[in-house]
Each structure stands twice: as C-alpha cells, then as structure tokens.
Design a protein that fits this description.
By secondary structure, the chain is α+β, with helices and mostly antiparallel strands. The protein contains 9 helices and 13 strands. The protein folds into 2 domains: 138 residues, 3-Layer(aba) Sandwich (Trna Endonuclease, Chain: A, domain 1), CATH 3.40.1350; 168 residues, no CATH class.
Length: 327
C-alpha cells in the first residue's frame, strides 16, 4: 500500500480540534499565548501564532505554526523512530519557512493523542520526517529558545592557534592546566544553551583510551578558546542521542547538542571547522499536563562533553553530521 493510500484510509479528524489542542499544550508547557491564523493569511497555511518568553534572549517572540491533525497524515513508511508525514507539499513548507522561526506540528488521532514537532526551513524537502522524541513538553521551552537564538549572523571571530609545544607530554601538561582553569572559572555562558558546566566528564572524553592521538592534540589546543566560541551563535547545531525516561515522579529529557563553527580557526595555517558537543538534561514533573507546576520545578543542566577541530577541506557537507555524531 502506498503512503497516499494509507493516508486516505485513515479516519479524518477535525483540524480545528488539533489547533486548539496544540494551543493548550503550548500554554501548559511553556506559558505561550496563542492566536489562530486567518484564512486570508499566507494562503491559510498558518494555523496558529504563539508568543513566549525565551530562556536565552530578552523579550518575547512570535512563532508561526502549521498543525496537521489525525493519522491520515501518518505515512505508511513511518517507523518506530520517526513519523513520515503524508500530503505535505513543498510550497506549504516554503510559505511557512518565510516566517522563521516556524514549526510544523503533527497531532495523532488517537484517544490520547501524540504530538510531534519539527522546525521548518525554506529549504526543507518532502517527505517530512519527525523523530518521535520531539514532542511539546516543558523541555520544548529550551529547544524553541535555541531555535530563536540561532537566527541571524554568527559573528564569531576567527582564531589563529599558536604553535603547539614541541612534544605531546608538554602539550598535555599545558592542556591540563588550561582545563583546570576552565573548571575553576565556573559555568561557561553560551549563546544557544544554558551556562555549561565544566566537569571531569569532558576531560575523560577527550583523553579516553583508544582515541586517535591526532584528535587528542587538536582537542588540547582548543581548550583556552572554548568560552570565546560558545559566546557566539554557531554556524549550525544538531540535537542527537535524545532519550526521555521517567524517574519516579519526574521526566528526564537527556540529549547531546553539537555546535559547529565553520572557518572558526586557523591551525598551522589551515582553515578549520570547530565542533563542540554538550549534554543537556531537563527534568520536569511527570504529571505536568494534569497538575499545576511552576518554572522552579523544571531543572536544566548543560555539561561540556567534547570538542575538536577538523580542517575544512576534510569536511565535506555530506559528512558533517556523521562526523559530528561520532567523533
């Protein structure tokens, strides 16, 4: 059966119900204020507009949203890891993408509906896949704030790395001293996440057994410049390895976020890309949809996990995501 046949066989659900349900979810999850879109606006492709207070910037922002309601939009090619949306046209995405930041929300037609979201870019292609971990919860507040903060030019300075010490032993001693100073200085302010804790985890990661000596040396040389880079918007970011679990009466949303800074450093005369990986953990009440809770009950922590650089000429656009996820 084709995707379109599966979509046609699914029961239809009133789209107005979906828009109202998403507005209620946004209000409960992040305190958003929503207004419905109009039929005359952008070809009736904007179902909902909501404003919220960012965790990373001052003031409020307005987000444009399109809501797809019902299992008729769930393509047969969907898997347990990602939902593929049927009947989504490229023109719809282009219209929605002109209002960045904007997002697409799918609400299932089940008695207890599932909600999933994806941020929209004008260059997004169809079919659209949404990973099953990306749903509207209190953790969405940081994700939406990051998407908003990522807009605009990066502006980070290009750094020329000084020549390294003559031998690996001296370089490691220098790096150890720099990392201790980084830990002592406290959490690192960052443009796209909450202040980042510096712990033994990051050092263990870059010095772990089996890691190539070339990668170790590159990580060692970058340590003093991490705060300077993290203060700026990266060229791109990626959320990976996301896991959401229940621990007693709390939900814990754990994920890795990878920032990459293109043409950020000149290392030994070679233009290079910098990648910085952090771990975020967001805790919130498991019964947040039913009970009353406050912002003080949401705990967010970011921890430095790894960093390295790679010459730009070695980093093709097709391999960036793969390298970022595995290095």
């Amino acid at each position: 059966m084709s995707n379109s046949d599966a979509a046609d066989d699914a029961p239809k659900v009133d789209g107005n119900y979906g828009v109202g349900e998403v507005a209620a979810l946004l209000a409960k999850a992040i305190g958003a204020e929503s207004t419905p879109g109009s039929m005359a606006e952008d070809g009736a492709k904007i179902d909902l507009k909501f404003s919220f207070g960012s965790l990373l910037m001052k003031g409020k922002a307005t987000i444009h949203c399109q809501v797809k309601t019902g299992n008729s939009y769930k393509a047969a090619s969907s898997t347990r890891h990602a939902i593929t949306l049927a009947n989504i046209h490229k023109k719809d995405l282009e219209i929605l993408g002109t209002h960045r930041p904007s997002m697409l929300v799918w609400l299932s037609g089940d008695p207890v509906p599932i909600n999933l979201y994806r941020f929209v870019r004008r260059t997004m292609k169809t079919p659209v896949d949404i990973r099953v971990q990306f749903s509207i919860t209190p953790a969405f507040h940081l994700d939406m704030s990051r998407e908003l903060a990522s807009m605009g030019s990066t502006g980070f300075p290009r750094i020329t790395l000084p020549p390294p010490p003559p031998d690996d032993k001296a370089l490691m001693a220098q790096a150890r001293t720099a990392y201790r100073a980084l830990k002592k200085a406290g959490a690192i302010p960052a443009a796209l996440t909450v202040p980042i804790d510096v712990t033994r985890m990051g050092w263990r990661h870059i010095t772990r057994w089996g890691r190539a000596s070339k990668k170790r040396r590159r990580s060692f040389r970058l340590i003093p410049y991490l705060p300077k880079l993290l203060a700026y918007r990266p060229s791109r970011y990626l959320i990976a390895n996301r896991v959401v679990v229940t621990v007693k009466d709390r939900m814990v949303d754990s994920r890795e976020v990878i920032f990459w800074y293109e043409h950020a450093i000149l290392a030994d005369g070679v233009d290079s890309l910098v990648l910085i990986r952090i771990r975020e953990e967001i805790e919130y009440p498991a019964n947040w949809m039913r009970g009353v809770y406050g912002r003080s009950q949401i705990k967010t922590r970011a921890t430095l996990l790894g960093w390295w650089y790679k010459p730009t000429k070695e980093m093709s656009s097709a391999s960036v995501t793969h390298t970022a996820a595995l290095s």
